[in-house]
Design brief:
The complex is a heterotrimer of chains A (338), B (253) and C (391). Chain A has helices spanning 2-32, 39-57, 79-84, 86-93, 95-117, 127-149, 168-171, 182-204, 206-216, 218-223, 228-250, 260-275, 280-297, 300-305, 309-324; strands at 60-64, 74-78, 165-166, 180-181. Chain A is mainly α and 338 residues long. The longest helix of chain A is centred in the first third of the chain and has 31 residues, at 2-32. Chain B folds into two domains: 1-80 and 172-179 and 202-253, P-loop containing nucleotide triphosphate hydrolases (Rossmann fold, 3-Layer(aba) Sandwich), CATH 3.40.50; 82-168, Rossmann fold (3-Layer(aba) Sandwich), CATH 3.40.50.300. In chain B, the strands form two sheets. In chain B, strands 6-7-8-3-9-10 form a six-stranded mixed sheet, with helices on both faces. Chain B starts with a strand and ends in a 5-residue tail after the last helix. In chain B, 36% of the residues lie in helices and 25% in strands. Chain B is of the alpha/beta class and 253 residues long. With 391 residues, chain C is mostly helical. Chain C is 67% helix and 2% strand. Chain C has 18 helices and four strands. In chain C, strands 1-4 form a two-stranded antiparallel ribbon. Chain C has a two-stranded antiparallel sheet with strand order 2-3. In chain C, β2 (173-174) and β3 form a beta hairpin. In chain C, α4 crosses α12 and α5 runs antiparallel to α12. Classes of the chains: A mainly alpha (338), B alpha/beta (253), C mainly alpha (391). The interface between B and C is large, with 55 and 44 residues.
Amino acid sequence: MDAILLQILNGLDKGGAYALIALGLTLVFGTLGVVNFAHGALFMLGAFCSVTFQKLLTISKQVKDTSITFFDAYKEMPYLELWFGDFGKTIIDYSVPLSILFAIPVMLLIGLAMERGLIRHFYKRTHAEQILVTFGLAIVLQEIVKLTFGANPIPTPAPEIFSGTAAIGSLFGLGESVVYPWWRLIYLGFSLSIIAAVFAFLNLTTFGMVVRAGMMDRETVGLLGINVEKRFTIVFGLAAIVTGLAGVMYSPILPPDYHMGMDFLVLSFVVVVVGGMGSLGGAVAAGFLLGILQSFASMNEIKSIIPGIDQIIIYLVAVFIILVRPRGLFGREGVMED
Amino acid sequence: MSNVILEIDNVQKSFGGLRALKDLNLQVEEGKVHAIIGPNGAGKSTMLNVCIGRLAPDSGVVTFNGENVLGKKPHEINQAGISRVFQTPEIFPDLSLLQNVMIPAFARREGSFKFNMFGNVCNEKEVLEEASHILHDIGLNEQEHDHAGSLSRGDKRRLELAMCLIQHPKLLLLDEPTAGMARHDTNRTIELLKKIKERGMTKVIIEHDMHVVFSVADHISVLAQGTIIASGTPDEIRGNLKVQEAYLGGAHL
Amino acid sequence: MNINIPSIKKDLFVMLIFSVVILSMPMWLKPLGAGYPDLLQKFAIFGIFAVGYNVLFGLTGYLSFGHAAFLGVGSYTAVWSFKLLTMNVLPAILFSVILAGIAAAIIGFISLRRSGIYFSILTLAFAQMFYNMAYSVLTPITNGETGLQLSRSDPRIIDNMMAQAGASLPSPTLFGLEMSGYSGFYFCAVLLIIAFFISQRIFHSPFGMKLQAIKSNQTRMKYTGYNTRPYLLSAFVISGMYAGLAGALMAVTDPLAGAERMQWTASGEVVLMTILGGVGTLIGPLLGVGIIKYFENIFSAMNEQALLAAYSFMPDWLAKVMVTITSPFVGEGWHLTLGALFVVIVIFLPGGIMEGLGKIKNLFKSKKKDTFTEQIPPKLPEKAEPQKEVS
């Protein structure tokens, strides 16, 4: 029982990341009709927002190290610490959550630039061409990041107080052994609130209503005289923010490197396909579902029966779904069923 | 009385709440040109889609040449001898006109699959000859090496008709072959249809243009709200009150 | 634009020219600084890969991201053949092609149940599965991250029956002819010529014409009496076998196999080569391979010093500016150039270099003619909308 709960919990934070990425991807596909292979790159750029922000906060000056007395030693001291002392230290410690504030405008700009500069010209072209051009874009973005930040993963630690584990087990009256890293718990809560925010935005605002109508029937909405193009741009920006924030908060779990975008891209497509192309709820549900499934597959008990299953389970599920129910678990009938 | 080649028996088809076809019965005699007329939304195209395996009916039977065609794949139905001209021209826009008609010619000769990757198209003298011949028939032989996608809409439809004719189908289904055509083009198509009528091919033709219908049809059936309300020779249909009602909108009782 | 029915005479003529051009590559590439065997082998091997990929993508329009997996299967099979049986390359190549064909048949059979973007995602999922398994469950076969290598203690049953094992690590041979250096290149070149010949035959066969018709309008194909799936599967398997052959040749010229060859982004490279040259044209993919591999060779070896030398004709300050602008694109940054090239090509020249050449040709033609006849501008093939079901 404990073990199962633990696996579910383990799956949930990963599932949260999958769900957020897939949500962005579905928004773009559903409204714009564009298959965006550069979507993984948005996740990666989000993670690097957190890296950049951390670097900005820790811009340092060489100061004399007073703890060493018998010769002149120097150490790097971030300006923030120099200026604000302990408060500066705390800010640096909280760089990951704080970088959300930094990432929102940055990701919005990146999203707008991407849509205006490239994606816009591909609405009317074939899916194959959309795939190819966004794939090229993904390579470009990934290489730029590689040139700027190097090829190695860059650790971006979570704030100190969240570095420990939460004793969930004793909280719920289960075994003491059930512990769960705080930061993962926070990630789960964070992804849930972002998802809730996106759904609230889509369901409660006029803008959201138009977007949802557009997902149902793009042509009609265009015919109603609504400026679809402008809304497309905004939706793309929104998707970029959602995906980017998923990356920001994921950076303490997985130190960002330049190819994490490509790694997550395939996964996010798999999630979208399983959930159903164009279904927002489906993307979220499938994200969590696949996250949990993956974490169960990596249990030793299961791996001993089917070795290596944890590596391929998600893809197997995707293949199965596409063959048996191509509209996905929650997709509407007739959407991309050909 | 000649043989019945196509028989639609009690076919039902609903889309959600809409009953597109209800208790549809139709018999098409061999060698005849059978026109289906009826107001928009009467279910004419749905009927053709059921015949060629594009849609599966909810119930009922469609028999072609004594064989049930329901549940068969589209290519099997075509190989059995039914070809169809679509309402919006379905051609191969990236291929040349000549290739467009060669493809169906190969389908008739080689069946639904042949793995002849080492053959050479230029060695297929008979097919090439037949293809140029039919392009000549429809008056498109001068553009035979052009992209089919660059043709005018009317020419595309004629090309599609040629693609079906080269298969020498037992039954040819035509879905509004003259819709959206200029009068001049329409007359040309009527000429073409009359020409193939002499060859004794059975045809089912859906048409709004009464001029076309009364110049080519041997038999006319009127479809309204998913069911046949009248059937007979052109003269009989001309005087039928029910038909006039259906067209004038009085049939919504 | 005219589409003419090909003639056998013209085909043979093209073949002849092609063979001469390929076999004389060491001579005419020397002045261009690319006349050394390693690079020439790469041209030939990736040429085979791209020619095969074009049979699928070019003729049927099915965009596969899984072909690197077949490349990997080919490489592993070849190395195992070296390890277990003999250092002779012929059995290695034979087994590789067959096994890659089987793998392609399985993946193709499943993936081809869907078309369009679903097909791409399915092949992507399979490629990723292969890649992940090569690092986990299949390590006994793939030797995981280290990669599969030859060792002196390999059984090599057939070779050891013939003669006593030598003291040093053996290398792949063709009946005693070492497969390194120029002999390796000529071996690959001959196979490339055969591969090109086969692809030419496919393009000009009724079979190839039907594949093109499937790309143009699959719905029409079905209602014209064709069972399209076996056609697609044949094309998929053929292109998978080409990939297997290319993989085997990689192992022949350098007998080790690693899983990184199977990553799905590696499939992206062959897509790029095919597109750059011209999808669906016979010679285009080879042009793409030539250009990319040639510039990869030059660009990735470049550094700031070399750039400075290249800009030496400019005033000093301009040269410095140019170096700053261009240096991210060379050396380590070669992939950046590649990605940017990809984007530019898809946006401006989706038909690749061949389309560009065609445009230039037409420009000249119309200039000559426009004095007496009105010339219709060359028309791009109509963009096929994703298939819609019409009720």
